[in-house]
Amino acid sequence: MRIVEIREMTASLSSTMRNAFIDFSKMTLSVVAVITDVVRDGKPVVGYGFNSNGRYAQGGVLRERLIPRLLEADPESLLDEAGTNFDPVRVHSCMMTNEKPGGHGERAFAVGALDAAIWDAVAKTEEKSLHQIFAERFNGGAFDEAVRVYPGGGYYDPEKGTDGLKAEMQGYRDAGYTLMKMKIGGAPLDDDMRRIEAALEVTGGGEFLAVDANAALDLDRATAYAGAMSQYGLAWFEEPVDPLDYEAHAELAKVCTMPLATAENVFSLIDAKNLLQYGGLRRDRDWLQFDPSLCYGPSEFIAIVKMADEMGWARRRHGPHGGQQLGLALAAGLQLGGTETYPLVFQPFGGFGDDVVIEDGMVRVPNAPGLGVETKSELYNTVLKPLAQG
């Protein structure tokens, strides 16, 4: 068995909305299709992957380095010991050939897209859902049949205002969500407090609302926000400061009464280790939100979870960032604390399959082969299938 061809494309995520740090008017991402000679149900197995929102496409890295390495490798060197399936660890190692340590940025996203596609192909080859594969290989076969999910939303949008924010939150409640998230840090503090209070009119108690500053604040402003928000009892304060400023995280953790959440912009095992060692995060309340499609793919994400295990972090304190089906598969298969979703934004990539129902803030995990992207019809029919077919 071997990889026959790898195709990539750049897709647009253009939108008028913004968070506290960036707008999405020119946002893109990379999509890959790994075409194999494995046949299931009369068709070649194709693994699909794409990186997460909030970063940009990495077509150059894919075309000039990663894809040629995989296609030029001895096909048997990419297989498991039995020779019956692809080995994601060996594939990952091949992609990283002649790459220096450090500099975990654009390269991590490109590897992440391909790594996700390889795992999709592995699960389809075994004719199993990806969450089942993760459970069997890394969790003793145990998995969650339903996963706690929350919508990432509440962006700054000049066309919406406070009334639009409340309407958005009400829409999430009507759709079955109990926990919701909104953006802060991109307006004066007093304005953001009014926005939070407006959202709370819909969500009810503060435990049903999380806030995300997208690392736009310095320590002084983050501390001021933490003090002002302490009255609300919010679910968590996400990305308050620069993701690599471990000292600022540690200082904020000393005074912030609400849970902190971070790590979506930490892209490697070594950076994750440094965050957990020096970031002052509290294992009893804070959240780890590594993004599996940005941190070199699910292979490195799983290594990070295992490292956190050894450092005393409960798996239920992990909630993958990214808002797509990959996070759902990992949360179920590794029995994590939940995952994000984007039911309204970053389409057609955000959200889960067409038949997924939200009930009391939970999602039952579909049993489709692989990652299940074929169950998300707009994504599959308008982007993935045409890419694979050429």
Question: Quick summary of this structure?
Answer:
With 390 residues, the chain is an alpha/beta fold. The chain is built from 12 helices and 12 strands.
Span of the ends, CA to CA: 21 Å
CATH class of the largest domain, named Alpha Beta
Helices and strands, in order, run as: EEEHHHHEHEHEHEHEHEHHEEEH
> Cα-atom Rg, whole angstroms?
20 Å
Q: What's the structural domain tally?
A: 2
Could you say what the CATH topology of the largest domain is called? TIM Barrel
| Cross-sheet strand order for the largest sheet | 5-6-7-8-9
CATH 4th-level superfamily of the largest domain: Enolase-like C-terminal domain
Structural class label: alpha/beta
The helicity comes to 25-40%
Q: What is the count of helical runs?
A: 12
Give the integer mean of the pLDDT values.
Answer: 94
Number of DSSP-assigned strands:
12
Measured by DSSP, the beta-strand proportion falls in 15-25%
What would you call the shape?
globular
Q: What is the oligomer described by this structure?
A: single chain
- Mind summarizing the main beta sheet? 5 strands, parallel
Detail the poorly predicted runs: none
CATH architectural type of the largest domain:
Alpha-Beta Barrel
